[in-house]
Amino acid sequence: MKVFKFGGASVKDAAAVRNMTRIVRQHQQDKLLVVVSAMGKTTNALEEIIRLFKFGHDYQAAVLALKQYHLNIITELFPNTGPVTDAINQLMDELHMHLETPDEEDKQYDQVVSLGEVMSTVIVHRFFKQEGLNCHWVDARNIIRTDSTFREGKVDWDETEHHCQELLQKQNHPLYLTQGFIGSDEYGNTTTLGREGSDYTAAIFASCLGASSVTIWKDVPGVMNADPKRLPDATVFEELPYKEAAEMTYYGASVIHPKTIKPLALKNIPLYVKSFLDPQLPGTKIHECMVTNLPPLIVFKENQCLISCKVTDYTFIHEEQLSTIFHALNELNIRLNVMQNSAISFSFCIDFRENKLLALIERLQRDFEVYYNTRLTLITVKNYDAPHVERYRNYPGILLEQSSRSTLQVLVRAEP
Ligand code: ASP
Ligand code: MG
C-alpha cells in the first residue's frame, strides 16, 4: 500500500483534477490510498465566511461564491452534473446549519471548515469513477480519532489504527480516496488537525496502514533550500534525513506540515515530495540517510508577534516569573518560536492569532508590563555560512536576533 497526498493547489480547478487523476492512474500497480485537501483556497474562504457570520456581516455572497466555484469545476468535469451538484447542495445546507447552530467557537469552526475537504473528495471521487478508476470513498472522520481539542485535534493512535485495520479487512479495494485535515472525537464531532494538516493525515494513514511510502504531490519540484518565490536561486534536495526535514518544518518551512515526519520516521516509511506539474522529476526523498554539506536553508515564517514582559518593581527577571509566563503559554496552548531574556524583561515570538494573543496579554498584564509588535517575519538560516550571516544580520528592520552554532534567526518587521 502506498499513500498519495494532493493539496488544494493540485485540485484547484478542473484541469488540475484531470491532472491528478492521470497521476493516480499511472500508479495503479500498487494498492493506493489518496488523501485530498479542499479545492484551491476553499479553507480560507470558509474561514472568511465564519468571520463574516460572527461579526454579523453579510456572508451569503461569500457562501454563494464558494458554491459557484465548486459548481464551475463540476460543470467542466461532468457531462451529467446532476448527482454531484445535489451532493454539493446538501453540503452547503450543512454549512448553513452549522453556522446557524450556536456552539463553542473552535468547535463550530471545525464543523464548518471540514466541509471543504468533504466537497473536494465528493467531486474527485465521482470523477475517478467516471474515468473508470475503481475507487472507494472513505470518510476520514470514521477513521481518524482525535480528542476534542478543536482546530488542533490530538490523534488517538490506538483507535485510529484499529479503524484503519478494520477498513482494510472489511473494504478491500485497490484504490481508496479520503479527506486530509479532518477527523472526529469520541462524541462524533468533527475535528481538524490544524491548518495545512492534510500532510499529517497522509502520515497518520501510512503509519496505521503500514504503508511502504508516502508521496506528497506539490507545485514545487521537491523540498528546496528556500522558497523559490522569495529566492529564485533556491535548489532542490535529492534526499534529506528525517531529522533535517522535521527541523525545517519547525522553523516554518511550509513545504510539509510539521507533524508529518515523526510518524513516518518512527516506522521508517520514506516520504517523497514530488511535483504534480512535472511528475517525471525525481523530487526529494526524505528517509533515514546521511547527507553531508547541506547548503544553507532559509525559512521565512510570516505573521509573527513579539511579546516583551517587563518586570515593574526593579527586580531582575527570575525563574518564578519565567514560570508564570510559561504556565500561561502552556495553558493557552501557544507555541514559542524564539525567546530571549535580558535583566528586566523576557521577550518571545509566537504565531499571531488574535484571540489567543489577547487572552495571553490579559494574563501577563497581571504580573508584567507587556509590550507587543505584530506583522513580523521570523527568518531562520540553518547551516549558515559567512555570506548568509552577512546578509541576514544586516536585514532591514531587525527587532531580535539570535544565533547558535548552526542556526541564525532574525525577527524583522514585514515589508509593507
Ligand atoms: N484544507 C486545509 C487547509 O488549507 C488542509 C490542507 O490543505 O492541508 O488548511
Ligand atoms: Mg490547503
Explain what the structure shows.
This protein has 13 helices and 16 strands. It is an alpha/beta fold. It folds into 2 domains: 217 residues, Acetylglutamate kinase-like (Carbamate kinase), CATH 3.40.1160.10; 117 residues, 2-Layer Sandwich (VC0802-like), CATH 3.30.2130. The strands form 3 sheets. An 8-stranded mixed beta sheet has the order 3-4-2-1-7-9-10-8, with helices on both faces. Strand 5 and strand 6 form a beta hairpin. The chain is globular and about 75 Å long. The model has no long low-confidence stretch (mean pLDDT 96). The structure holds aspartic acid and magnesium ion.
For the largest beta-sheet, the strand count, sense and barrel status come to: 8 strands, mixed
CATH fold call of the largest domain: Carbamate kinase
List the bound ligands: aspartic acid, magnesium ion
Any guess at the CATH architecture of the largest domain? 3-Layer(aba) Sandwich
For the record, the count of structural domains works out to: 2
Radius of gyration: 23 Å
Helix content: 25-40%
> How many helices?
13
**Helix/strand order:** EHEHHHHHEHEEEHEEHHEEEHEEHEHEE
Q: What is the arithmetic mean of pLDDT?
A: 96
